[in-house]
Amino acid sequence: MAKRDFYEVLGVARGASADEIKKAYRTKAKELHPDRNQDNPDAEAQFKEVNEAYDVLKDDTRKAAYDRYGHAAFEGGMGGGGPRGGYAGQGDFASAFSDVFEDLFGDFVGGRAGGGRSRASRGSDLRYNLRIALEDAFAGVQKTITVPGSVACTACNGTGAEGGAEPVSCPTCSGLGKVRAQNGFFTVERTCPTCNGAGQVVKNPCRVCHGAGRVEKERTLSVNIPAGVETGTRIRLAGEGEPGLRGGPAGDLYIFIEVKEHAIFQRDGLMLFCRVPVSMASAALGGEVEVPTIDGGRSRVKIPAGSQSGRQMRLRGKGMPALRGGGAGDMLIELAVETPVNLTTRQKELLREFEKIEAENNPETASFFKKVKTFWDGMKG
């Protein structure tokens, strides 16, 4: 398959300047990078094609040869027409790829292409798991927590150098944080072994933190837990994570909430459920029962005569509050009709007497056994 015109690959005119070519290359490389196009099987080939085009057009000598002879300038007997006699796959591919790598990820590693790397690096984020009671989740609470970790070294003000002196540029990589080695036609780029990619080194490391710029120490923090939180709620405390390396910004502290199970209430979002036992007599005759509410109060609930187990009654606005406002949910009372145990002789006599006359007053029982009889008759047939 014939190679496409390099200018067409990058989407620029033949008279484009070096800056226009570089800008077009970065745009295309970002767009076609395989890591961003995992669902596109052609992305890798297109990405290589863009790098190949840029490797030629970024070099004035090779660009002039390409403008005059086209692809033939680097093929067959004319392979010596350029300073390296090959495309990006045979030439300084690492140099071409480094340009787009810095452009794509420079913000995260602390520097941009040509600008070196910053000596400071952001601290790590921390996670703290906090268990609270349902009552605290309802009302909100202030908790004091102890966070293990590290703090900026006061002896060197977080610089890592004795007396707070500023680090100096790494002599191995000249402050770039990376070194390159030529291996035949390939250029291999790796992290600088002297500064570990920081770009700067400390001549006289701090005796307290040994050049790290931070020391291990527990911290005590006061945290406000808002009303309405539930298990899985995440609270972010900006700048309360690990301090940055050598004066870099601190990370964040993320507090993950776990609400403990309650002995009386069960929660589902904004709804609360409370299972309340009632006697057979109260369920049959009707009555009242006093139930607790999550705010520590009490509510009297009327039990309709003839109530069955599982019957629910709603208390409006007695559930959990919505996080960040917006009202509150309801509380559902579920009746559990309780069968008495350890009966006295007199109680047994009364129940047997009651059993003889209650059949006609149990419509659900009559309906069920009528269906059972129909089922058995059907099986016999």
Automatic annotation (TrEMBL):
Q: Which residues form the J domain?
A: 5-70
Q: GO CC terms for this protein?
A: cytoplasm
* InterPro entries registered for this protein in UniProt: DnaJ, DnaJ_C, DnaJ_domain, DnaJ_domain_CS, HSP40/DnaJ_pept-bd, HSP_DnaJ_Cys-rich_dom, HSP_DnaJ_Cys-rich_dom_sf, J_dom_sf
**Matches recorded under SUPFAM superfamilies:** Chaperone J-domain, DnaJ/Hsp40 cysteine-rich domain, HSP40/DnaJ peptide-binding domain
* Record-linked SMART domains: DnaJ
Where, by residue number, does Zn(2+) 1 bind? C153, C156, C206, C209
Any one Gene Ontology MF annotation carried by this entry is: unfolded protein binding
Query: Which residue numbers delimit the CR-type Zn fingers?
Result: 140-218
Q: What does this protein do?
A: Participates actively in the response to hyperosmotic and heat shock by preventing the aggregation of stress-denatured proteins and by disaggregating proteins, also in an autonomous, DnaK-independent fashion. Unfolded proteins bind initially to DnaJ; upon interaction with the DnaJ-bound protein, DnaK hydrolyzes its bound ATP, resulting in the formation of a stable complex. GrpE releases ADP from DnaK; ATP binding to DnaK triggers the release of the substrate protein, thus completing the reaction cycle.
Concerning PANTHER family, the annotation shows: CHAPERONE PROTEIN DNAJ (PTHR43096:SF48), DNAJ HOMOLOG 1, MITOCHONDRIAL-RELATED (PTHR43096)
Q: What is known of its domains?
A: The J domain is necessary and sufficient to stimulate DnaK ATPase activity. Zinc center 1 plays an important role in the autonomous, DnaK-independent chaperone activity of DnaJ. Zinc center 2 is essential for interaction with DnaK and for DnaJ activity.
Its protein name is Chaperone protein DnaJ
UniProt organism field: Phaeovulum veldkampii DSM 11550
This protein's encoding gene: dnaJ
